[in-house]
């Protein structure tokens, strides 16, 4: 949902659980930037072997990890994923890998099970950016 919203500026209510690679041009600070986004649904990612996930990690320059504020399990898996990413990427170079944690479904605050503070603290403890969106 976040990827489609970023690419099209529209919200679509139903999404399949398929993996896609999108390309998108965007002007940032007067410079044209080409984004390649490898969008992987969490359920698919968890079902795959580590080698497929490692391939995606090596392909990417930065990471946006999304969890639902209404789903504790989607939040609880983040520390392990971030450690895996950092071990794979930062082990090769001295540069810090850009990672942002995004709490999604902020509009469903009445179903919230993960607090904003928990998200901020996790991001702080793992040296990541943090946002909540709907």
In short:
Helix content is 38%, strand content 25%. The chain is α/β, with parallel strands linked by helices and 134 residues long.
Question: Could you explain how this protein is built, in words?
Answer:
It holds the Pfam family Ras. Keywords: GTP-binding, Hydrolase, Nucleotide-binding. InterPro entries: P-loop_NTPase (IPR027417), Ras-related_GTPase (IPR051065), Small_GTPase (IPR001806). Its EC number is 3.6.5.2. This protein folds into two domains: 1-41, no CATH class; 51-133, P-loop containing nucleotide triphosphate hydrolases (Rossmann fold), CATH 3.40.50. Helices cover 38% and strands 25% of the residues. It has six helices and five strands; from the N terminus they run H-E-E-H-H-E-H-H-E-H-E. The chain has helices at residues 2-8, 42-47, 50-59, 72-76, 78-90, 116-125; strands at 20-28, 31-39, 63-68, 99-104, 129-132. The longest helix is centred in the middle third of the chain and has 13 residues, at 78-90.
Task: Please write out the topology.
Blueprint: H1 2-8, E1 20-28, E2 31-39, H2 42-47, H3 50-59, E3 63-68, H4 72-76, H5 78-90, E4 99-104, H6 116-125, E5 129-132
Parallel strand pairs: 3-4, 4-5
Antiparallel strand pairs: 1-2
């Amino acid at each position: 949902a976040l990827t489609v919203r970023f690419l099209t500026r529209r919200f679509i209510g139903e999404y399949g659980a398929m993996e896609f690679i999108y390309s998108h041009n965007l002007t940032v600070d007067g410079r044209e930037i080409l984004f390649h986004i490898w969008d992987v649904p969490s359920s698919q990612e968890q079902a795959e072997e580590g080698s497929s996930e490692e391939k995606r990690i090596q392909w990417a320059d930065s990471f946006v990890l999304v969890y639902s504020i209404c789903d504790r399990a989607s939040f609880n898996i983040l520390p392990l994923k971030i450690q895996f990413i950092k071990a794979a990427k930062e082990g090769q170079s001295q540069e810090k890998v850009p990672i942002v944690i995004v709490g999604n479904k902020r509009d469903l605050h009445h179903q919230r099970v993960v607090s904003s503070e928990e998200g901020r603290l996790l991001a702080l403890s793992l040296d990541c950016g943090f946002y909540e969106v709907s």
